[in-house]
Amino acid sequence: MDYTYIIKRPVLTEKSTIASSELGAYAFVVDKKASKDEIKNAVEKLYKVSVVSVNTMIHKAKKRPTKFGIIGGEHTKKAVVRLKDGDKIEMF
Amino acid sequence: MVDNKVSVTDAGPSRKKINIEIPAETVAQSLGLTLDTLLTQAEIPGFRKGRVPKRLVEKRFGGAINQQAKEAMVSQAYAKAVEDHKLRVLGNPFARDLANSEILPGKPFTFEIEVEVLPEFDLPKLDGIPVNRPLIEVADAMVDSEVTKLCIQEGSLDERTVAEPGDYLTGTAEMTGPDGKVYFQSEGIVVQVPPADKAPKGMIVGLVVDDLSTQIGLPKPGDVVTVKTTGPASHENEALRDLPLSIKYTVVRVDRIIPAKEDDLVARFGLADAPALRAALRERMEARVKIDQQSAMRMQVARYLLEETKMVLPQRVTSEQAARNFERRRMEALYRGVDPVAIEQQIAELRAASAGEAVRDLKLFFIVDKAAEGLGVSVSEAEINGRIAQMAIERGVRPDQMRQQLIQSGQAASIHGQIREHKALDAILAKANITDLSLPDFNKAIEAQNQASASKQML
């Protein structure tokens, strides 16, 4: 299975960097239809780590009015994956 | 901090090769410093300014960090090497492979720079140099000739359908080499059809062509003429030297200068009548005569210095040296009030002059520079402003306009060099043994000196 279809890209922000270094929690943009189990499997296979928990959330895209009507981007799904103590992912 | 390993070797007359090895510790220190600076400035989405993780900055801006650190290290190491080895560097340094070399953390960085330096030589005795001063009087005929020149300068353009000798052509020029490579291309290039007294010699795109009138003929607007010539041996662009060149010139318009009338000049300059105009011109010419007198004496000092100084010089002048020589000549002509067309003509002739003459100019530059240093000559801001004002009077423009023109044409820096050279020569002249001679006697004396120099060179 192509796990890169599930894990789109890591989320690199100040908040996610602190979470990864202090709590061992890493954030990824994932496929909207991916389940927590699929995300857990994908992260474990891609990064060769053990996942303890997965929290997901839908990030709703902002809508803005234009002269053609109201348009907005696609919603995205974010997953925060917590790893077993001692495991690590090199984000950059 | 560990010192750099520097070795300086000769790379020909008045050139040195500087080999510098920057130790690994300094490289690491410099990289760290550049990264720290960047960390405080980097702005990446998702992070506040100054909060971006070090590794992310390294990954994103690794190339830029290396480049910045390399530039800082090279400039510091070069400046220190020049200072430590007391090198008198002229012009810009030249580094062949520096752009392609990369710095690697934990490894020393080695590079090589070639510089042009002031050659080592001894100055001759500067006291009591024999110099002749020409006594020139501004005659009525000279004023008449100046009035005629001014009438042409202030004249109006009359568009013509066919060119005649002396007319000005405006058009586009394209200069190509034997392989078809385009070396120069520009619109609005002005070419004078050689007038009867100067034909067949003429100038096009800054090059003197011995048979220009034969090649260019008497064209009409829309005509395309091809002029064949050879690149001068001392051209500032080394690629053009001794190269067979073909200049394709498309004539866009033909103009003739209709000289202004003397009465028009009187009205234009706000003077009372023709005698007042002549009086004003005479005054200006008398000032110019003094400059010419001083220039003639400076030339004699220059000749003495050239003949009495022994120095090893490069066989060929580099492009920077040639460009500097041309700038010096251009500035000298500007100072002496030579009109712009004649200046460009002089520069074109200088390009066509033998390589020996260019080397001679270079030698004089080195000698005068050393003499200026020995005599403690310095140039103040007020002196530069004064020289610009004097040039502005000669040109008939405002000093601020003159300053702007000089800055735009990149000649402003040459003024400092010119004043320094003049002051050094004047300081030598102050101790010289000066003899006043009438103009015919002066010309005879100069002729005799020329012959003596020529026979000395033949020996």
CATH topology of the largest domain in chain B: Trigger factor, domain 2
Q: What is the N-to-C order of secondary-structure elements of chain A (H for helix, E for strand)? A: EHEHEEEE
Q: Strand percentage of chain A, roughly?
A: 35-45%
- The structural class of chain A is alpha+beta
CATH superfamily caption of chain A = RRM (RNA recognition motif) domain
**N- and C-termini, Cα separation of chain A:** 25 Å
Name the average pLDDT of chain A.
92
Outline type of chain A? elongated
For this structure, the CATH topology of chain A is Alpha-Beta Plaits
Overall mean confidence score, pLDDT of chain B: 83
Give the beta-strand count of chain B. Answer: 13
Largest interface: A-B, 7 and 9 residues
Q: How big a fraction of the residues of chain B is strand?
A: 15-25%
* Rg of chain A, nearest Å: 15 Å
Query: What is the overall shape of chain B?
Result: globular
Quaternary organization: heterodimer
Instruction: Count the DSSP helices of chain B.
Output: 13
Which bin fits the share of residues in helices of chain B?
Answer: 40-55%
What's the CATH class of the largest domain in chain B, please? Mainly Alpha
Total beta-strand segments of chain A: 6
Could you describe the largest sheet of chain A, including whether it forms a barrel?
4 strands, antiparallel
Can you offer a commentary on this structure?
- The complex is a heterodimer of chains A (92) and B (459).
- By secondary structure, chain A is of the alpha+beta class.
- Helices cover 24% and strands 38% of the residues of chain A.
- In chain A, strand 4 and strand 5 form a beta hairpin.
- The model of chain A has no long low-confidence stretch (mean pLDDT 92).
- Chain B is α+β, with helices and mostly antiparallel strands and 459 residues long.
- Chain B folds into 3 domains: 113 residues, Alpha-Beta Plaits, CATH 3.30.70.1050; 204 residues, Orthogonal Bundle (Trigger factor, domain 2), CATH 1.10.3120; 103 residues, Transcription elongation factor, GreA/GreB, C-terminal domain (Chitinase A, domain 3).
- Chain B is 49% helix and 20% strand.
- Chain B contains 13 helices and 13 strands.
- In chain B, helix 7 packs antiparallel against helix 8 and helix 7 packs across helix 12.
- The mean pLDDT of chain B is 83.
- At the A-B interface, helix 1 of A face helix 2 of B.
